Amino acid sequence: LALLDGLRKALAENQLLVEYQPKADLASGLIFGVEALVRWRHPERGLIRPDIFIPLAEECGMIGAIGDWVLQQACQQARAWQMAGLPPMTMSVNVSPRQFDDLRLVARVADALHGSGLAAGLLELEVTESLIMRDVGQAVAKMRELEAMGVALSIDDFGTGYSSLSSLKRFPISRLKIDKSFVRDLDSSADDRAIARAIISLAHELDVRVIAEGVETEQQRAFLQTNGCDEMQGYLLSRPVAPQQIEALLVQQMAAA
Ligand code: G
Ligand code: G
Ligand code: G
Ligand code: MN
Ligand code: NA
């Protein structure tokens, strides 16, 4: 309850911040985008992770305001990097169920793009597999609206839900994200290796890219690349970091090119 009270003040008192985690192409190693991940710097409890406070924000109806703020921050950051002469980066933003269901979502995304001047083609929204499978028809309709604006969509935490190939085919998505629970034990689990391979071929069957999240070791990276995975995200490349550290990585990448 105390946490809930605190959350109400967090936005107004500037306690939220956004970190960014790079995503790279597996074949070239080049960073092509980042995922925005919100954090709460609590005055007494220190840094609170989103898996604690995002569900809380969903329950108390604050997810709209918080999600909106993250979306605006992320779009402004991507635009600022572009203006600074850095290579164009895809900016991925997580959208939770209640945020996705909100009738104002499409307008809010449009506002964040117009407000920042970011091209729609540089924005991607990550929605979870469980979210879109609750009501396939409604999810497809909303995703088509976003697609028409030029915004890309990806399915997060893929493999943890129960999507059928026939329903997946209806979604206008450009990327599947292999959930990190399958990546973690790639070295020791033949089952997880089989699941990862199956998701990679499913993605390619659907003609979409596939990214593995939670890549921590060189062995995991090598397995994924050998098996045709397109992209990676994880501590092996970088933890979620402040924008300045993303800039440093990009400058380094430009210097090496
Ligand atoms: O770093 P990590 O602990 O950031 O994130 C934990 C979970 O919180 C992830 O499932 C992630 O999708 C979610 N998350 C992080 N940032 C946001 C956000 O801005 N909005 C929503 N809805 N979820 C987020
Ligand atoms: O080649 P092109 O840029 O048109 O491919 C678009 C996407 O289609 C790629 O990002 C890739 O994920 C996917 N794709 C479809 N078929 C295959 C395939 O057989 N192998 C690979 N690696 N990707 C494929
Ligand atoms: O939205 P999503 O559930 O995909 O959020 C990504 C989550 O995964 C965040 O909590 C992020 O901090 C975390 N993460 C990113 N890279 C790694 C990694 O290499 N290992 C682990 N264990 N977690 C990671
Ligand atoms: Mn995500
Ligand atoms: Na995920």
TrEMBL record:
Residues 1-254 form the EAL domain. This is EAL domain-containing protein. It comes from Pseudoduganella ginsengisoli. The chain holds residues 625 to 881 of 890 of the full protein.
